[in-house]
Every structure is written in C-alpha cells, then in structure tokens.
C-alpha cells in the first residue's frame, strides 16, 4: 500500500488522530526523499493495559505509510523513574513487555517482520552513550530537567537524581536509534522540547515529534498502570472486562473525559474503519457507524445509551484481547508473568525497596477508597453514633456507622469527601449493619480529638487509595478477621508532622496526590 501513496497521503496517514506535531515541515521534507524513520519507546514498568492499543494503532498507520519503525523497550528508564521497576526484575519485565506488545500487534494484524525491536540497555551502557550523558548533564540545568520530566517521571517530595537523568537519556535515544522522529503521548511534550533544545548543542540533528492525545481511563482520568480502577489489563478475563466497563465513567450525553468513547475513536475506528452498536430493536436496533463524529453526535444527543455503548465496546475489546489471552495461557508465559510481576502480598520486598518480613502486612491488601457522604443522621438507637450513607463508587451507597457525634457536626459531614475502608467484614452496631469504616485521624488526651481524613481536592467516589511503593498490589475481597490483617497494618498508620497520612513513613496517595488531615500532627489513623 505504501508504494502507492503520495508523500502527501503518507503524511496524512502518519499524522491522523495526533494531537500535535513538532517539526511538521521536516517530516514532509523527508517524505519527499525517502521513508520516515520513527521510534516509539515504552518504559517496562507496570503491566501494559488496553490503552496501549492506542499507540499500537498508530504504529499500524506508520507501517501503512511505509515508515521504518523501531520499538524501544526502555528498561533503564523504568529503573531511573523512581525505581518503578527494581533492578532484579528489569530483564523479566522486558521479556514480558516484548511478548505482550508483540501479541497486541499480532491481534491487530501488524506484521512483526516490518518492525525493529531493541532494548535500552543494549546501547545505553556503551562508552559513547555514557560520555554523551555526561556531556548533556554539563549543559542541562536542574530546572530544565525537572520541568521536562514533570508529567512523565514520578513526582515525589524528595526526588532522586535518577529522575533528573531520565529526560536527557530519552533525548539521546533519538540520535543513537538514528531516527527522524519520535512518537509518544502529549504528556511527553516537555521531554520532546528538551531534546529539540539540547541535541543540536551536542552536534546532533533536531528531530520531529509526533504526539498522541492522552486517552482517559475508565474513571475519566489518564489510564494508568498503577491505578486498578482506571484500566483494563490485557489479560483480564471477559468477566473482569464486563465488571470494569460497567463501573466506567460514561455519563449520558457527556463526551468529555469519556474513556469508553475515546477507545472507539482512537483504537476501533483506526483499526476497523467502523463501529457497530448492538441494541434491542425497540431502542433502534443494531447500527453500523463508519464515521466517529456520527457516533459522538449520537451519544451527545443521547441517541446512544451508555449501556449500549459499553456493551458494544466490550464485544470489540474482547475480540482484540482473546488472541493475547490465549497466547499467555502457555505455562512458559504464565510463569514469566508471575515472575515479572510477583504478588506484593506474597513477597517480603516491594518495588519500592521496602515491605515487611510478614507477608500479612502488605498495605495493598486494604481496599481503601475515596467516598462521599450523601446523607448523615443520628443512629436511631444510639445518640453517640452517626448513621451515614457513603458513595464509594458502587451502584448503591454503603451504610456506615461511626462514633463521630462528639467530634464533627452533621453539617460538616454532609457532602464531605472522605476515606473509607471497604473490605472489612460487615458488623452490626446497635442493630444496624455497618458495611465499611470511615477512616479518621485521632489524638488521645483530654479532650480526645478526631478528624476525618481528607483526599486531594477533585477526588471522586471510588478512587483507589494506595501506599507509596505498593501501587500495583491487589486488595483482598474481604479481610479475614481471624488473621487480624487490619489491626496489624493499622498499628503503623500515622499522621506526619506535615499532616500527611502515612504507613511506615510511606505516604497514602490517590492519583491526584496525598491524603491529609487538617490539624492532628502526629496522630493515629483508625
């Protein structure tokens, strides 16, 4: 097909659905003379999820346009980014990424023989590359390095030097891979502009940059490997896909931050050229769309129900995922998966370099979520207790009984955003079953002081709360009360001198930031 396309047609195919192109004229100039050389890199950190089909569909476009495409498994970058991948797991993570990325490409019909695969440490540890890292570090200011990595490198209170090196290495990769352009998400724009600024200072050519939009996850924010609620794992079962799509943000008529609709736009249409809505004849019957704008307009006009959209995406998604699931049913790939991503609740050490000697004490076993109090009233049989209804991202609010009457007024609790522990065994309190626990900071004394914990501003009900360094662990369905898991973990939950909630000096976080309280420095959490 590429040989039959004009340079203008190739450019259109290369740039369709991109949010931005830096160096557009350079790309056009190269296409007049020869095929474009492009690379896409992925840091081998958390497990790839279905949002990876977005860059995969663009790679398919690049190949149709005749581009020479290199895929970089950036293992060294994965380690430099706040040790998201520990050194001892780097090789296993690369093998996992290579197998799953190739399986994805095969599932969408991309011929692997037209691609070049390379590992970062195959060339990034060479004498020449290392000298260029030193040369670059003598030019790039701390301010520029920090700014470049702000949206890609994990941001922490006391950043490691490794995170400052990350953007410079990504810039150098363009030269050492001998490409004309780098492809990535628009969240990498600042790294791309750093490359454009500093590569010429080393005597190297300035490259072009092709940027995809950031596709919303299921919760409406960026889809993230460390946020279970925001993503569908490539190896998730059909049942898990159905369950996660059912919970996905998909408000009737709302096309903003709609991850389900975005998947149709950036994956299904580029790959299949059409999208089928399956629905009951009394609601209009099945319909095949050949233009995404028509899908968007019909959804905005509420001619497509969110339930029908989700059900239709579920069918298409399972068709893409089934070949990947089948490939990973082999004993070898099952073993690789378990070795590359060991269950943090069954290991004594985490990717963050910490953990405990007792595998009972992995904080990822706690199902802590952001909640919103939708109603609060006095317990009918106990004046010292509140009866609250709390939205935790499920179809119905949970009933919670708390002893906050002496500390917080009903008015202050109404519509308040709070933290809720959701996987304790329900227990009756004065005749009413409490289905979760409202988490608070407290300081003992006369008088005792208690404050509900505060999630970051803008948090939504159902968002997961995790402990720094334990992002990828899976919570227990229900904590076994005989094992005293909550009691053991709760002993190390504290409030810092900066009013930040911590477990063993590691922050409690959501995707938007840290958990805090208003005034109770040094308090306990219960």
From TrEMBL:
Ranges of biased composition (kind: Polar residues): 336-350
Q: Which GO terms describe its cellular component?
A: cytoplasm; nucleus
CDD domains membership: tRNA_bind_EMAP-II_like, TyrRS_core
Q: Where in the cell is it found?
A: Cytoplasm; Nucleus
Enumerate the spans annotated as TRNA-binding domain: 362-466
Q: Does the keyword RNA-binding apply?
A: yes
Q: Which Gene3D superfamilies match?
A: HUPs, Nucleic acid-binding proteins, Tyrosyl-Transfer RNA Synthetase
A GO molecular function assigned to this protein is: tyrosine-tRNA ligase activity
UniProt entry tagged with the keyword Transmembrane? no
EC number(s) on file: 6.1.1.1
Chain intervals for the UniProt region annotation (Disordered): 332-362
Which reaction is this enzyme known to catalyze? tRNA(Tyr) + L-tyrosine + ATP = L-tyrosyl-tRNA(Tyr) + AMP + diphosphate + H(+)
**Keywords in alphabetical order:** Aminoacyl-tRNA synthetase, ATP-binding, Cytoplasm, Ligase, Nucleotide-binding, Nucleus, Protein biosynthesis, RNA-binding, tRNA-binding
Predominant location: cytoplasm
Q: Report the domain of life of the source organism.
A: Eukaryota
Q: Which GO terms describe its biological process?
A: DNA damage response; tyrosyl-tRNA aminoacylation
Identify one Pfam family in the record: tRNA-synt_1b
| InterPro entries associated with the record | aa-tRNA-synth_Ic, NA-bd_OB-fold, Rossmann-like_a/b/a_fold, tRNA-bd_dom, Tyr-tRNA-ligase, Tyrosine-tRNA_ligase_regulator
Q: Tell me its family.
A: Belongs to the class-I aminoacyl-tRNA synthetase family.
Q: Which NCBIfam families match?
A: PRK08560.1, tyrS
Q: What is the name attached to this protein's record?
A: Tyrosine--tRNA ligase
Organism, per UniProt?
Poecilia reticulata (Guppy)
